[in-house]
Structure formats: C-alpha cells, structure tokens
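pinned: reference chain
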Amino acid sequence: FVCRTLNEDFIDVKDTDYEFIKKMWSEWNNKKIMKKQFKKIVIVIAGISIIFISKKFVIDNCIVSGESMYPTLHNNDILWVEKYDNDYKRFDIVTIKTSSPFWGKTIIKRIIGLPNEKVQIINGDVYINGEKLNDVDVPVMENGGIAENELCLGEDEYFVLGDNRNNSNDSRSGTIGIIKEKDIQGKAVIRFFPINRICNLQE
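pinned: its structure tokens
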C-alpha cells in the first residue's frame, strides 16, 4: 500500500514536472522565435536605411533617357552617380535637377563653364574667358543660343552642354540656362550597363 501510494505520488510529480518543462520550453521557444523575427526586422530596417542614405548622400544609379549625350552615352545606359564629391571640374558629366517648371526633371550634361568664368559661343566654338576651348570630340554647334552673347558665371554657377551639341537642351536654352551648384545632384563616374560598354566616365 505504501509502495503503491509512493509510486502514484512519484508519477504525479513526474507528470507535473513534464508539463512545467513543456510549458517553459514552449515559452522559451516562442521567445527565441520572436527574437529571430526581431533580428530580421532590425536587419531589414538597417538595410533599407543604408540604401536610403547611400542613394541620398553617397552613390546612386541613373538610366539615360534620350540621345543628348551621344556618342558618349546612349539611350538606356545605366550609370553610377557619385553624390558626395562636389568638387566639379570641367568636362565632368553630371546629373542636374532642373528647377524650371517647364522641365522639372533630372537631366545629364557635361560641365563646360566653371564658376566665375565668362562663356561665349562664337561660330560654333566655345570660348572661356576669351580663349577658345579645346573641347571634347563633338560636332560643331549650329546654334549658340543665349551663349552667343557672353555669359558671366557667378561663384556657384556652371555652364553645361550635351555632347550631342545639335540635339541637346542645355545651358544654351533659356528654359534651362546657367546651372546652380545646388541643383547638381552628382557626378557620373561609371557606366555599368550594357556590359559590353562598361567604362570609367572620369577618364
């Protein structure tokens, strides 16, 4: 009788312990799952933040639309644009957010005139401070636009042109005109698509 009672008590205790352990394991496992889910959420948020910060301040990509920079750039070329370096030099290719209500979009052009310079187009040639510019290999311009009269650039102003000189809306146009530095979004550094035309655009 005593043995039977002790044995039943033993069984009761064992069952209670099992249920307790099972409950604790379930709670611990749930916490573990929640912890894993929390880690995933943190990783996703961190990843999105890094991408956002990179695109906003470091590097971005852009797809060329149109032929205004032909033959250097073609329609649908994909470029890496460096956004943290605002030390712009002559002949840099840059993306620009146009402030004109008529355009109101991002364009890509080549810097020709730098701050505090005087720019003029005479007989299709660019003159900087009265001296003819040894330009990139581009067609002679048929129309100098507003630059047929000498333009004086301010300390934060740039004069830009498309490489396809006779098929480009750029600083010669009154709707775009002289570019403010604050409107330059970044410098195109690499064309990475299409694969067969990958190149460094800063060379």
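why pinned: The radius of gyration is 32 Å. Residues 158 and 179 are 5 Å apart (CA to CA).
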